[in-house]
Each structure stands twice: as structure tokens, then as C-alpha cells.
Amino acid sequence: MIKTVIIEDEKPASRKLERMLSNFPEIEVVGKIESVEEGIAWFSENEHPQLIFSDIVLGDGLSFDIFEKTPTKGFIIYTTAFDQYTLKAFKLNSIDYLLKPILEEDLSGAIEKFKSFIPANNMTGSEDIKQLIRKEKSTLSRVLVKIGYNLKIVQTHEISCFFSENKIVYLQTEERVYPSDFTLDELEDILEEKKFFRVNRQFIINSDYIKNIHTSPYYKVDMEFQPQEEITVSRDRVKDFKEWLVG
């Protein structure tokens, strides 16, 4: 049996996830936690489970705080409605990241991924976990942006480029420009490498929206949708840029 803990502060969501997990006979839920305070106490007093399903935003803080104070050797699958926590999640023993509402096929895929990580002797040390997780680089599939008092989900395939201006990173779509909560350094780590490339300190571009590339007197890229400022490729990035274009 795979001993499992659910960390979720919304009771209906916790019950729904437990029901979904009941369809997997190999899963045994041994604990349900509703807050950071309760989580720290539980992980301090109990044997850590092999698998943890954890929401990120709890009533008294972020679930990251639990594992920063009580490091675990178990694998974590985060469940949340907010995509912008992806980067930090994958630094804390996370092997998958399920966006709510959780679909049955996504849950099944995450459990199968967990099983593939477990050695035959069922023993996994913390260093083994780090090595496995390093192989599972996260990729950002959608971004949550704020428009006035409203929230909007933007799919990354709709984004022509990301750019920084006055210490804020924006994303450009056909429709308009939106501010984001990311830095360009963070985005470099979590965007799909085949699609996105950082051409300079200010811009990350999406290959699907490249309209034209000028090579003289310097490399300049025209995008289908972009801010007024021209997009140039830094001299030290030209070689990597050309390799990315054909890769």
C-alpha cells in the first residue's frame, strides 16, 4: 500500500480528492491536514508517508512552509488553482502539479509517475529524490493575470513574448499586454525550451510568433504581436539563438 496524506483546507475539495483516490486500491489515505500549523505538528509527530497531495494556499499560509520546517522524504503532488507557484513547488520534492479542478486522467497520470520513481526495494533517500526531480523540469502551461478586480487565465501558447519594463514583467498576446507576477529568470526555468528563448535581458520570445529576423547590422526579431520597442538578440546569445531556431 502507498501511504498517502492529503493537505487541503477546503473540506469539499478534500473529500472529493479522497473519493477520487479511493478508485486506486494501492492508495491508503493515512492523514488529512487543513492548515500549516496542523501540518507542521503532524509531520513532526508521525511517520512521513510515501506520497503527499497538497494544496498550496491554505488559510494560515502556504503549504511550502510545512515542508521548509519539517523536510520530508516523501513525494509531493501539488493541487492548486494557481499556476504561478510552479517554480517553487518543483524545488520542494514535487513530482507533479495538478491544476484544479483535478481531472481523473491527470490524477491517474500523476500516480503512475510516482510509481515510476519508486525503486524495486521501495527505499528512496533524499538525494535520490533530488536527482529524480531534477529530471522532471516543470513547464508553465498557463498564467493567471489580474485585470482590475478580475482574474484571467492566459495559455502560454497564446503568448507572443514576455518583456520587462520598470521592474515589472509583462506578457504580450494578440489581444493585449498583461502584467505578471514572474521574473524573467523564473520564466526561463519553467517555460518550454523548444518554444521560448530569452534573446536579451529584457525579452523572452515564442518561436510560433516570429514574423521576420533581420541579421544586419545586428540581429533583430519582428514578432506578430510585440510592444513598440524593437527586440534585438544580444551578441553573446546569437549562436544559441540560431541553434534554438533549428533545434
From TrEMBL:
- What does the UniProt keyword field contain? Phosphoprotein
Question: Looking at the record's lineage, which domain of life comes first?
Answer: Bacteria
Q: Which Pfam families match?
A: LytTR, Response_reg
Q: Which residues form the Response regulatory domain?
A: 3-115
SUPFAM superfamilies for the chain: CheY-like
Mark the transmembrane ranges.
Answer: none
> Residues in domain HTH LytTR-type?
143-247
Per the record, residues carrying 4-aspartylphosphate are: D55
Q: What is this protein called?
A: LytR/AlgR family response regulator transcription factor
